[in-house]
Amino acid sequence: xxxxxxxxxxxxxxxxxxxxxxxxxxxxxxxxxxxxxxxxxxxxxxxxxxxxxxxxxxxxxxxxxxxxxxxxxxxxxxxxxxxxxxxxxxxxxxxxxxxxxxxxxxxxxxxxxxxxxxxxxxxxxxxxxxxxxxxxxxxxxxxxxxxxxxxxxxxxxxxxxxxxxxxxxxxxxxxxxxxxxxxxxxxxxxxxxxxxxxxxxxxxxxxxxxxxxxxxxxxxxxxxxxxxxxxxxxxxxxxxxxxxxxxxxxxxxxxxxxxxxxxxxxxxxxxxxxxxxxxxxxxxxxxxxxxxxxxxxxxxxxxxxxxxxxxxxxxxxxxxxxxxxxxxxxxxxxxxxxxxxxxxxxxxxxxxxxxxxxxxxxxxxxxxxxxxxxxxxxxxxxxxxxxxxxxxxxxxxxxxxxxxxxxxxxxxxxxxxxxxxxxxxxxxxxxxxxxxxxxxxxxxxxxxxxxxxxxxxxxxxxxxxxxxxxxxxxxxxxxxxxxxxxxxxxxxxxxxxxxxxxxxxxxxxxx
Length: 511
Hints:
This protein has 511 residues and is mainly alpha-helical. Helices cover 72% and strands 3% of the residues. Helix 1 packs parallel to helix 7 (162-177).
């Protein structure tokens, strides 16, 4: 299908989002933007959160990781990502029954107000600042991945520069979140999650039909290619199953339970009971959706193998590179799904290409629009103190909030260009690594507040500890194979980071 035709479908989808945004943002105010007037339907929030949690990274990177072989002679990753998914589920239980009751009890708009009430201003500002850093890095990495796919497979063929592609997508997101905020994205996320899951199911159905396989036969074929292994029992590996499950649980606690973007939707639900139902429903559905993505990944590799693709060493700019290749086309990692869906291996029906692009955009926007809204909320409430500003009337507060929203969009644009320079082939691993460094201090601060009754001095030492802990983690992770007899620190770096922060806070605390 011609790139211009795909672009028309993308524009049509944007127009649909604008209509939803216009309808839901009527009579909106600052409370609508920040917490949806605490009147969101829990079922809509639960379903929409699936798209927010999965994002374009899951849509592209998880299927691409299934058959990926990092080095010659190694075995495929197979279904190893499901180890992390198991941990995610356990983490959601902690969020539902430990953190949500705390947030509702304190009637919070920003969850970082808990740190202010518990420890004072320095802990509060430190926690909010680390959220802003964490979510900016994570959201822009996800945004880069999907914008890059749109650019490589559509916009570059129309001779549109990457920076223009990025700017246009961000402007679109800015426009439909500008007024309604959380009130709007509860509905737009529901629409986008529906389109994403529809695209996933259609792609699975098409490949099964093309390969003349039932689901059971496909699983047997995946097993023959060593693509069905879930648990990694190599204790020195980054993918060791205990590391992955425990690390996944703590990632959920930190990246969902201690994240304003995810929690602002939960606390926009009317009451605690409905919010907990939302969290539990969402977590169960999320497990099954991730299984579908892993199944799709196995099917994509089976399809590519039937077309003649293979793992081999090729020369790239005079350097030998190991990867999954078809006729000199790299299918490694994030390249696999777009290459198959857009017919670069074999001509695909037009509807598959259209559905893939719409589903990819639908996977992108729930995480991007939610992050932009949450960062605006956190900066306005936690850093600028907009709720307590008696010197500003409602109209002035609105103008300030819109200015911050525009500034955050500009920051996103700059960060996307940075990721363009980094240009990682499989970005999901990078995001999990970054999360371990940036969410660790948040994990330590909240854990210290919940598990102890000790107080902290309300001064800059809290911020110093929160900065030193990730630095120590980086040094430890870098040198661990030499210091620990080949042991490689992976996803558990988040736990270590949180423990270091907790220990530092314990040292400076008093009864």
